[in-house]
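Long-time lurker. I teach an intro course on protein structure, and each term I like to show students one example going from raw sequence to a predicted 3D structure in token notation. This year I'd like something fresh instead of my usual example. Would anyone be willing to generate the tokens for the chain below so I can use it in lecture? Attribution to the forum is fine with me.
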Amino acid sequence: MPPPADFRQVGHSFPPIQQCGRYNGRISYWRLFAIENVIRIIAHTLLITQYPREWVSSTISKDKYAYLEHRKASYRSQPAGSTPGPHDVYYLSLSDLTKIVANHADLFRLTMPYVDVDSWIARLERVHLPRNLVAHMNWPNDNDRAEIERLYRETRSLHRLLQRNGFPFQVP
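-- Reply from a regular --
Happy to contribute to a lecture. Here you go:
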């Protein structure tokens, strides 16, 4: 199905905005959701063995961790609402996770010798801007959507490869 016209190009009315939002959710958002959460689980599974107490605080900068703590406090101040998740990893974005993988690439290579970790870091970096467009409710173009689709298919393949090799996925 072709995308609807970019709502920013058709003048203001609610239906085009709604159509773009529905299309973006149906085409891109759910794929990014799957990608980001699979990467979270893989990173958690590997890093919890190296940093058993709290791997997130041990693998990100002090400034980033302070920001994460600030975000957690914001969620706690609204107790009737949801939180990103029960573990600090859910407060990290895909770009944060990509940096963590890059900074601990040797561990990932050692644990998953059948995975080209450097190629995966590059793949994740390639989808950084398209992911941000979708996450911030903007309108990705055809190339951005294709990049998201490609990474989604590759992430499914990675997941199957890890499963076949007995990777002990641990959902935080």
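Some talking points for your students: Residues 14-50 form the longest helix (37 residues). The chain has a mean pLDDT of 95.
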